[in-house]
Amino acid sequence: MAEFNNVSIAKAASVLFEGNITSRSIEFEDGSRKTLGIMLPGEYELNTVHTQIMDIQRGNLEVLLPAKEWVTYEGPTTFEVPANSKFKLRVHSLVDYCCHFVKNGI
């Protein structure tokens, strides 16, 4: 899907790691939510509450999921992060991403 229709977009950005990761939240008519953002090169550790499906549009990064080894991803690609977990990122080039939050079957 190249574009989203009939959505509400948060005006304010979520800014993490001194601006190295930024995103904007979008909400769909069915209540589901995604974020659209970028990650600049660096190393980061993030937490999840809900399962996240990370859709990498472009860029190169390595991901360390719980109880796994580092895996390299080159966009376009997708990977899943389990709910209630911490994961690490090594971002090697600007990453353009869309994150889908899976909760309550949505």
Number of helices: 0
Sheet having the most strands = 7 strands, antiparallel
Number of domains: 1
CATH homologous superfamily label = Jelly Rolls
How big a fraction of the residues is strand? Answer: over 45%
Calculate Rg over CA atoms: 13 Å
Our measurement of the CA-to-CA distance between the termini, rounded to an integer number of angstroms, reads 17 Å
| Mean model confidence by pLDDT | 94
Which fold does the CATH topology refer to? Jelly Rolls
CATH class: Mainly Beta
Shape field: globular
Q: What's the number of extended β-strand segments?
A: 11
> What is the succession of H and E elements?
EEEEEEEEEEE
CATH architecture: Sandwich
Helix amount, in percent? under 10%
EC number: 2.4.2.1, 2.4.2.2
Pfam family, one: Ppnp
Function: Catalyzes the phosphorolysis of diverse nucleosides, yielding D-ribose 1-phosphate and the respective free bases. Can use uridine, adenosine, guanosine, cytidine, thymidine, inosine and xanthosine as substrates. Also catalyzes the reverse reactions.
Protein name: Pyrimidine/purine nucleoside phosphorylase
